[in-house]
Amino acid sequence: MAGDQWSPVAIREVFSMPAALLGRKIGMTRLYDASGKNVLVTIIQAGPCHVSQIKTTATDGYGAVQMAFEDVKPRNSTFPLISHDMKAGLMPKRIHREMRVTENEVSELGLGDALTVDRFDQVQYVDVTGVSKGKGFAGGMKRWGFKGQPASHGTERKHRSPGSVGGRAANLGTGKPKRGIRMAGQLGNVRVTVRSLEVIGRDRKQNLLWVKGAVPGPNRGLLWIRKAVRLSRTKAAKVAKVS
């Protein structure tokens, strides 16, 4: 992910405070469990983040906590953001992200408090959000998995064409295709959330989180990691059994 995919300005979203952090994707590797099974994992630098602003119902109309992530040189920031972080006793930060919390959770935090990977100690599954790799302009076969036109006699210079468009997806009387029709266009470079990834391990000293499987984006890409909000029956039964 070249540069930052999210603006340094705080983004208002509703997430659970106890287990949510900003981080960066480090890369993928493999681990072996006790039975010798090969498990592919992604290593994520989860935090440390710091509380840069606290919002309450009395002052802002809702309860929220803004977290700041990753130091940045002052010359690469702006005076408003530098002053904003200074009020919380922080050095200039690159990324700021806001999440909704309850009044009780707001009272438990203070400006400048560190949020580390310890918040995922009791979490077995996480949702990871990132910006997928951009693959440029792609045709219908690569973008949507179309099989293409017949490769035998009669097809000339149209083997990878998606086929007719107007007859199958036209708004009658307008001469225009309907919205949402699958055609050639930009592939990737969109925000993607991968749900319910199993947490394999943690490294508290280096704030590392190991999750099973792949996450969106390239190495060093910005990620938002939160406790899974919805589990399948199998995973929910596993969590209930452990707890």
How does this model look, in words?
The chain folds into two domains: 12-134 and 191-242, Translation factors (Elongation Factor Tu (Ef-tu), domain 3, Beta Barrel), CATH 2.40.30; 139-187, no CATH class. Helices cover 15% and strands 36% of the residues. It contains six helices and 15 strands. The chain has helices at 57-60, 79-87, 103-107, 140-144, 166-169, 233-242, and strands at residues 12-13, 20-32, 38-46, 49-55, 64-71, 93-100, 114-115, 125-131, 137-138, 170-171, 176-177, 185-186, 191-203, 208-212, 222-227. It has a six-stranded antiparallel beta barrel. Strands 1-6-5-4-7 form a five-stranded mixed sheet. A two-stranded antiparallel sheet has the order 9-12. Residues 1-16 have low confidence and may be disordered.
